[in-house]
Amino acid sequence: MTISDLLTLLPLLIVSGWACLLLLIDLAIPTERKYWTAWLAILGLVAAAIATIWQFGFSFPAFGGMIVVDGFAQFLNFVFLLSGAVGIVLARNSLQRMGIDRGEFYPLILFTISGMMLMATAANLIVVFLALELLSIPLYVLSGFARPQLASEESAMKYFLLGAFSSGFLVYGIALAYGATGTTGLNGIAAALTAGKLSDPLLLAGVGLILVGLGFKVAAVPFHMWTPDVYEGAPSVVTAFMSVGAKAGGFAALLRLFVSAFPALGPTWVPAVAALSALTMTLGNFAAIAQSSIKRMLAYSSIAHAGYILMALVAAGARRDLADFSVGSALFYLFAYAVTNLGTWAVVVAVEREEGKGLRLDDYAGLGRKRPGLALAMALFMLSLTGLPPTVGFIGKFYVFRAALDAGFVWLALVGVLTSLVSAYYYLRVVFIMYMHEGEGVALDRWSLNLAIGLTALATFLLGILPGPLMALATRSVLMLLTGS
Q: What is the end-to-end Cα distance of the chain in Å, rounded?
C-alpha cells in the first residue's frame, strides 16, 4: 500500500474517516443541538465532492488493480454524495418531529455512502462483496431507526434477513467465477473469457448467481419482495436515501461487472436481463396503481424505474459498439432519477406528520390551494417520474428507449413505453388530488426543506431543457470504463 493508493481513494477515505470522527464529536453535542451533527456530516460530503472534482477526468488503478477510480466511479460519486446531502437535510427536518433525533443517524449515512463509493470503484469481485456489505449493514440499522415502532423494526428485520440471503447468492457466484477462471479480478475474468472459457458451465452458473445477488440490491423482479415493506416501515428519510443511493450502488456494480468483465458472455446474459427488465417495468407499474399509501406507491415506482435502467444494460451487452451511449444513458437516468426522486421524498417529508400520519394519497388534498409552490414542485416531480416533457425524466427515458431500439430490442422499448403510460395513471393521480380535491393541505414549512425542494425542482426542469452537457459527461465517463483511459 502506497501514498498513491490512498490518494486514489481520497474521497472515500474522507467520507469514512469523517464518519468515524463524527461518532466521537456527536458525544459532546447536546441533545437539543443535534442539528450540528447534521451540518458537520454535510461538511464531510462537501469535502469529498471537492476531492472528487480534483480527480475528475483521470483514471487511477490502485491496490494492485483491485480498485480503479475512473470517470464512471467519479460520476456515480456525485450521485451518492447528492443523495446523502439531501437525505441529511430531510433528516434534519424530520427526525426531531418524529421523536427519533439520534446523532448516530448521520455517521451511519456516511458509512453507507462510503460503501456505495467503494462499489463504484471495485475492479475485483472480492471488493464488490466487501462494498456490498459496507453499503448494506448501515442501511439495515437505519431501516429500524424508528425503534420501538413495530413497523420500523419489522422493516429492518426483513431487510436484514433477505439481504443476508441475497449476499449468499453473490458470494457463491463469486466462488464459482473464481473456480472457472482462476481469478477474481474483472480484467482477468475478461481475459479468461477471451481465451475460451465462454461455455464453462461453472462460470455461467456464477454469472447467474451474481446477477441474482445484485438484482436484489436494485430491486429487480423477482428479487423485489423486500422493497414495499421495507420502504413503508423505514423512516421516510431513510426510504428517500435508500431509493436513490442503494439503487445507484447496485447498478454501479451491475454495469461495471457486466460491461467490463462479462461482455463476451453477452449472448447468454442479455436475454435474461431483458426478461428481468420487462418483468420489473410491468409488475412495478401495475402494482403501484393499487396503492393508497404514498410510500408504497413510490416503492413500486422505484421497482419500475430499475426496469428502465436495465434496458440500457441490455443494449450495452447486445451491441458492444453502442456500449458508451447505452451505459451513458443509464448513468444519465440514475442522475435524473436521483434528482426527481429526492425532490419527491422531500415533499413527502414535508407533508408527513407525527406517528406515521400524512402518508396517504388523500393527505395531499388541498395542497394546491394552501401550498401552491410545494404543489407545483410535486407536480413537476410526478411529470418527470412519468417521463413527460419538459422534465429530465422524459430525457432519461428517451435515452434508454433509444439505446434499446438501436440494439434491436424493439419489443423491450415497446414494453417500456406502454408501462410508462400505465405509470401516468398513478403519478398524475397525485396531481389531481392536490388540485382538485378539498383538504387541509398541511405541510411543514422550513427554509432548508424548502431549499432542497426548490433546488431539486429547478434541476428537474433545467436538465429537461438542457440535457446535453450532463449526457456528454456521462458518455465521457463510460469511455474511461470501456478503454481504461
A: 22
Interval 28-59: pLDDT, tens:
888 777 778 889 999 999 999 999 998 887 77
- Backbone phi and psi for residue 360, each to the nearest 5 degrees, phi listed first: -90, 155
Query: From CA 287, how far away is CA 426, in angstroms rounded?
Result: 10
CB 359 within 8 A of CB 410: no
Find, among 255, 316, 225, the residue nearest to 128 by Cα. 255
CA–CA separation, 459 and 391 (whole Å): 9
Residue carrying the nine cell digits 483521470: 58
Q: Are residues 392 and 384 in contact, defined by beta-carbon separation less than 8 angstroms?
A: yes
Residue 485 has pLDDT above 60, yes or no: no
Q: Give the CA distances from residue 339 to residues 78, 289, 352, 384, in Å, rounded to whole numbers and listed in that order.
A: 11, 23, 20, 10
466: left (phi over 0), alpha (psi -120 to 50) or beta: beta
3-state helix, strand, coil in the chain (%, to 5): 80, 0, 15
HSE (CB half, 13 Å, CA atoms) of 317?
25
> Residue 112 corresponds to which amino acid?
T
pLDDT band of residue 394 (cuts 50, 70, 90) is very high
Q: What burial class does residue 4 get, using C-beta atoms within 10 Å of its C-beta: 0-12 exposed, 13-18 middle, 19+ buried?
A: exposed
For 65, how many CA atoms within 13 A lie in the half-sphere containing its CB? Answer: 8
The length of the chain is 485
Give the pLDDT confidence of 158-193 residue by residue, as tens digits: 899 988 888 999 999 999 999 988 888 888 888 888
Instruction: For residue 282, give the H/E element and its range.
Output: helix 266-289
Phi, psi of 293 (to 5 degrees): -100, 135
Helices (H), 99-235: 105-121, 125-143, 150-181, 186-194, 201-217, 226-233
User: Which residue type does 246 have?
Assistant: A
Residue identified by cell 417500456 is: 416
Residue 368 φ/ψ, nearest 5 degrees: -65, -30
Give burial (CB, 10 Å; 0-12/13-18/19+) of 259: buried
The domain segmentation of the chain, as residue ranges, is: 3-483
Please check whether residue 181 is in contact with residue 267, taking contact to mean a CB–CB distance below 8 angstroms: no
Give pTM, 2 decimals.
0.93
What's the CA gap between 54 and 74, in Å, rounded? 10
Residue bearing cell 455517521: 107
